[in-house]
Each structure stands twice: as structure tokens, then as C-alpha cells.
Amino acid sequence: MQPIRPPYIGRFAPTPSGYLHFGSLVAALASYLDARHVGGRWLLRMEDLDPPREMPGAQDTILRSLESYGLHWDGEVLKQSQRHAAYAGVLERLLQQGLAYACTCSRKQLEGCAGIYPGTCRDANHATADAAIRLRVPNLEYCFEDRVQGRFCQHLQRELGDFVIRRRDGLYAYQLAVVLDDAAQGITDVVRGADLLDNTPRQLYLQELLGLSHPRYLHVPLIIQPDGHKLGKRYRSPPLPPEQASPLLARALRALGQALPQELEGALPAELLEWGVEHWNASAIPRSRTLAEAQLR
Ligand code: GLU
Ligand code: ZN
Fold first, then answer.
1. Given Cys at both, which of 94, 147, 219, 270 links 99, Cβ 3.0 to 4.6 Å?
2. How confident is the model at residue 211 (pLDDT cuts 50, 70, 90)?
3. What architecture does CATH give domain 9-296?
4. Which of 15, 26, 34 to mutate to test the pocket of ligand 1 (most atoms within 8 A of CB)?
5. What whole-number percentage of the chain has pLDDT above 90?
């Protein structure tokens, strides 16, 4: 017997540290089409966990961009800034169970560790005030089958070490928030950029620890600039121009390997999306981690 899959619920989860750019449009579009093709719901979550890095006005601009590109979401926008109580409760429980601990290492002390936390504070019993909170990771490899990128594995202890779930400045880490929010919103399918592929094993481990079910994952290629950098915040991309919605949606469809017919060139956003929803074929997405923007037509 086939296991029964719950009805599809997808989401787009932008961070308001900058505006949407062509790369985020590609990810949003893939997530939208993957959901709508099977009649699923598509939710929106504002990942406003880090006020100091937030760009004033970005939240509204992101919502307006999605609307002008015809990417309409279901229900209310969930804001991570409203979810601190949920994060705090789980953090407290992990601390009490000894699964997480306080770390007082300075950046300087961790230099030379090549990004792999050596476990210095594991058994030090530091107070949690003015300390980062790290999650103990098992000496195990975590693997999953990505719908586009194939099998991906990471050995949490050897490749990463115990990772931060609350920063020293008191801000909650993305890894913790994303896992709790995906579960709270009942997300069955995560579709996002391939820059997050190597975050997924951490999220699988947290889901396992907290008794949450694993969503399916699909990581779309990251759009990169000629110098190899990802498009984005660092370059202060301007907002997606509303008057460019048709050509940019057509370009994003082609970047995702969807064979948009020539006669739909110049069609309205709603028409392009209607075609996309009907013809969506996730197996046509290029099986690569990156795509050069300059090569997209
Ligand atoms: N907020 C993250 C970003 O903008 C995406 C998180 C996710 O999709 O899991 O890169
Ligand atoms: Zn430490």
C-alpha cells in the first residue's frame, strides 16, 4: 500500500534584509508552481529574525513585488518576529534535556577551526545569559533525497560540530526558527535555493529531535553573477521592477527548464503563471547547484 501523503502545503520564506531579486524570483516561482500544480496551498513567511540586518521598507516591498508578479499566497503572512515565545519554549526544553548548552567562545577563539565547532564548551556548564546556545550534534551522517539535487549527505559532527540555535546577542538562529515554523505551518514541501542545501541536514536532525515530520525538499539552482557571487543583498539589488513582470517571469520559467512556448512571450503575468501551473515539470529543472545569470535568455 502507498503511504498516504498529506495535502500539499508549500511556502516562500524571504528574509527582509534586502529586496527580492531575480534569484529569489526563481525560487519563489518554483515553490509557487510546485504547490499550485497539485492544487496545494502556498504560504508566505517573513523571516524577520534579525532586526539589525533588516532593510527598512523591505517587508512591504517584498509583498508588493510578489503581488505585482501575480504570486498570490494563501492566508496571513507569518512573521518570525511574532514567534519568539515558541522558539524560547523549545530552546528551554533542549537546555533542560541537556541537548543544548551555553557557549562563551569568542570569534577569536574559534579562528582556525575552519567553521567546525570543536565542542569546547560542551561540558563546561556555562550560564546561559550572555552566551550563545549550541545544539549537540550526534556523531552521524544525515542524508536526504533532494527532488532536484539528488542524494545529499552531511556528517554533522565532522563537517559542522555543535551549531548555534540562539546567538549570543539573544537572537534566535535561522535553523531553529525554520524548523519550528515549517512544522507550525504544516509545510509538506520545501522548495528553495540551493544555497540552503547544506543547511538541510541540520534541519533534519532538529526535526528528528523534536519529533516533527520531515518535509520533502527541492533545491533550485542558485542564480549567480559572472564573478561567481550569488545575486543578492550584498549588491543592494534594486526591487524587482513591476513593469518587468512579464519578461522576468518568462526568464525565470526558462531558468527552471520549463519550455515556455514562443507565442506566450509578452503575455500577462497571470497568463504566464497559468501556463506554468498547468505544465509544471519539476524534473526539467537543471540538476545543478548554480546557474549563471548571463547565460539565461
Ligand atoms: N529566509 C531564507 C532566505 O531568504 C530562506 C529560508 C528557507 O527557505 O528555508 O534565504
Ligand atoms: Zn564554546
1. 94
2. very high
3. 3-Layer(aba) Sandwich (3.40)
4. 15
5. 90
